[in-house]
């Protein structure tokens, strides 16, 4: 690599690091307006991408815990990082996959030690959804098209009453919140904040039967009931 090419790369990498750090800071500053943000990020000792797992835009896979007065929020932290440029690439003009997920639950045990919290179904659920989104890469496009999505999982230790007869747990993604914004501004673009809401077996069956119409109807019903995205266990 020649002198000028090396200088160009150093300038690019410096700019990337600035965007990366500002993206992280902007997310943290937002969550501090929602509740008390933990000083520690829930992450891996060894990044799963080095073990053959899914990679995230800037190779950072983290989750935040935000403690509110009557509930706790988990939020993914890294899906909206800028994509790390390789070789001679320029910095892409967007923030990763353009979204982050969050799950709010009123289970008091979520206020415990982080090592214990990692074994809770709520953390397992947001973890699996985030990895799924990183694997697919196009979930934002589906959310923009359908507004609310649904997903199913068979290996979640779901709370009582949320597992159907086939061992499936269903969730809605994108149910509106009266307190948490649907999007936040990061250095390169506005990114979407996507809520995660557990479905009862009856609600999941309704989605099976009527698809996108059922998802929208359920979202409206949750809004009218005043429960919105909150997982009340």
* Biggest sheet features: 9 strands, mixed
Order of helix and strand elements from N to C terminus = HEEEEEHHHEEEEH
Low-confidence stretches: none
Helix content: 25-40%
Briefly note the structural class of the backbone. alpha+beta
Q: How much beta, percentage-wise?
A: 15-25%
Gross morphology is globular
What would the average pLDDT be, to the nearest integer?
92
Number of strands: 9
Terminal CA distance: 58 Å
Describe the secondary-structure layout:
Layout lengths: L2 H30 L3 E2 L4 E2 L18 E6 L4 E6 L21 E7 L8 H4 L3 H16 L2 H8 L2 E5 L15 E5 L9 E3 L4 E10 L1 H25 L8
How would you sum up this structure, described in words?
It is globular, with a radius of gyration of 19 Å. It has helices at 3-32, 114-117, 121-136, 139-146, 201-225; strands spanning 36-37, 42-43, 62-67, 72-77, 99-105, 149-153, 169-173, 183-185, 190-199. A hairpin with a 4-residue loop joins β3 (62-67) and β4 (72-77). With 233 residues, it is of the alpha+beta class. Strands 1, 2, 3, 4, 5, 6, 7, 8 and 9 form a nine-stranded mixed beta sheet that branches. The mean pLDDT is 92. It has five helices and nine strands. The longest helix is centred in the first third of the chain and has 30 residues, at 3-32. 36% of the residues lie in helices and 20% in strands.
């Amino acid at each position: 690599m020649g002198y000028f090419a090396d200088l160009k790369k150093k300038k690019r990498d410096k700019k990337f690091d600035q965007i990366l750090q500002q993206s992280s800071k902007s997310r943290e500053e937002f969550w501090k307006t929602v509740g008390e943000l933990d000083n520690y990020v829930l992450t891996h000792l060894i990044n799963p991408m080095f073990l053959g797992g899914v990679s995230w835009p800037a190779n950072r896979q983290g989750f935040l815990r935000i403690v509110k007065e009557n509930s706790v929020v988990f939020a993914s932290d890294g899906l909206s990082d800028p994509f790390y440029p390789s070789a001679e690439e320029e910095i892409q003009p967007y923030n990763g996959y353009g979204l982050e997920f969050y799950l709010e639950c009123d289970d008091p045990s979520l206020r415990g030690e982080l090592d214990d919290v990692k074994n809770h179904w709520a953390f397992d659920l947001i973890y699996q959804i985030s990895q799924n989104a990183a694997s697919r890469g196009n979930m934002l496009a589906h959310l923009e098209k359908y507004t609310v999505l649904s997903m199913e999982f068979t290996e979640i230790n779901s709370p009582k009453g949320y597992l159907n007869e086939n061992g499936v747990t269903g969730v809605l993604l994108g149910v509106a919140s009266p307190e948490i914004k649907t999007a936040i501004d990061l250095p390169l673009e506005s990114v979407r904040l996507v809520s995660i809401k557990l479905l009862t077996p009856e609600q999941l069956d309704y989605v099976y039967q009527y698809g996108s119409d059922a998802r929208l109807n359920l979202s409206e019903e949750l809004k009218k009931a005043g429960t919105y995205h909150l997982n009340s266990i």
